[in-house]
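Issue: copy button drops trailing tokens. Both records pasted manually instead:
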Amino acid sequence: MSKCWKLISVFIIVFLCTTIKVSAQTLNCNTYLANGSVGSDVKTLQTMLNKAMKCNLDVDGIFGSETNRCVTSFQAKYNLDVDGIVGPNTCSKLNVLVGSQEKPSYIASNKALAIGNDINIRKSATTSSKVIGSLDMGDAVTIVKQVGDWYKIKLSNNSYKYGYVYGPLVSRNVIVIDISDQSLTYYEKGKIQQQTPVVTGLQNSHDTPTGRYVLKVANMQRGVTLRGYNDDGSTYASYVDYWMPFITERGIGMHDATWRSTSEFNTSTYQYNGSHGCVNMQPSAAKQLYESITTDTAVVVKK
């Protein structure tokens, strides 16, 4: 073969490899996408849905009614929760079907939070492997590396030094509200970005509901008057600068509480002078969190 043809062959191989690498797409499963979401992640979602479901969506980066319809059809087809929310399970299924199969051996950050209860920790990266421990919602783990769809994690107080958890069951972008500690911790890409004291719902009367939720950017608002009823039947109207609802149907979210003194943000106020269910924050902390959230984010409320 002449030198010319050798050079042409090398160029073709490099071009093809480069093209394949650029065209391969994988959806980020550490974020939540839903009706109202916008941006490059939505464009990736729409492209992958068109491949998986042939929905002929406009790849415009806007999660509207047509994208929502395609998402729910996809979820129904693959026996997922039909909620229109592209969370870890829906995302993982899309990646397996049409995403890039290339996985990084190591990840950039080494922290993740459990976003479900009774999550099995296994001896190796397979569901048939021996269960050697478990995680509860909000538990933090230290990740050693990624193995396919699994995370290898460090263990403590266990006869095994390492274990494995299924990737979609933990998240590196999450807000954890700990009722017992009366604290809020915001993790972004596995790193703690903010920790602050809060006041949650009045204990045994208006408890902030525990569980896993999603804070949608589209629902966040500046300058809102929250209205409701007190226990005696009277009404209240509380103006807040930063409103971040995560249980919209019940009007429960995080917000600044200018009417509370700094000393009220402790571990006991919620037991006798808690909120109506919302998560009260100091104004500066609420502002910081509000301005930090740029994409739909998991919210875990635990006791």
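Record 2 (pasted manually too):
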Amino acid sequence: MERTYRVSQVNAYVRNLLEGDRMLSRLTVEGEVSNCKYHPSGHVYFSLKEQDAQLACVMFASARARGLTFAMRDGMQVQVTGRISLYDRDGRCQLYATAVRPAGLGLLYEELEKRKRALYEEGLFDEAHKKPLPPLPKRIGIVTAEKGAALQDILQILRRRNPYLQPVLSPCLVQGDGAAASICRAIRRIEKAGVDVIIVGRGGGSIEDLWAYNEEIVARTVYDCEIPVVSAVGHEINTTLIDYVADVVAPTPSAAAELVSYKSEDLDARLVDLHAALYRAMATRIEAERTKMETLAARLRYTSPANRLTRDRETVSEAAGRLRWLMRRALTDERTALIHREEQLRKIMPQRLRQARADLGVLAARLEGLSPAKTLSKGYAYVTTEVGPVVSAESLRKGSRIRGYVADGGFDACVVDVWRNEDTKNE
């Protein structure tokens, strides 16, 4: 019985055959790029085709970093180096690319990429060098062929948008021998003509037709121009070297005319709006200044000597009136307080007199009890000598003269004898 295989087994077998083939493990294939897609992961998927054949290709992000040095697009003729293998999931034979380089016309792309890298490293592509377009240009410089369709497209757009603009043509060759030098001379010539902005452009064409705009001398002339330059070479799909050094890039010459021009009716409407805004601003400013002037005038009137004198008089009059009122009030308050104290005094005096009499009686009784006269009336005598009162027997001597005082009189005497209480006790 014949053996049956799974699909994965067959694909694995074919893949091993392809990868085991020495020629297919590394080869270079030339063809036209088709269905070129840059995946967000960094991988590039494309096909190589010729009239009756097509080969699927993939370049992984790791290989792309080293093996793809230009922007690959559909239609390019390239040479791809890599290995042939089978993608098991789709059962598709494809070329796993490790390097891609231009072939035939691709040599022009390779040269263009080389020039781009050199100018980029010099800093000619830096955004810091880009000049802004003037908002309201009057004279528009045009560098293109005198009889080309690009000139007519630009003039038509400018006339339609604003008939007041002044286009200034600096004619030049746009392709063929001597075109690059002619473009450079035309740019330098128009730069001295007093224009506000310059459009450098032509209609679309192949890379050979547009090659003059990829020349380094043209790129440097555009970069060195002191007037803003708009690059408008070819159609939207065309990219030339001057696109990277120009101040602004337009997809077509017509689009460049749109960029540098402005509609006259838009300007009229803008002027009307500005006039209205200016009128409102002036009215607001005048009203603010009038209010300020009235405030200053009122302040001046307030601070004038006459007004100050009047205010001072009013202040003095008010203060005098208040003083009189305060004095009347103070007199009234004192009179009321005096009457009140007088009434209190009338009520308190009799009570105070009675209390004083009672206190006086107590003091008189105490005084009477302490009176020497009362003591003398009880048979005591007050005895003195020439020296003073006799308070001790020791102050007396036998024969001393003494004087005594009794309740109703006194006496003089001579001391016959002196004794002390101790002497009496000893007897």
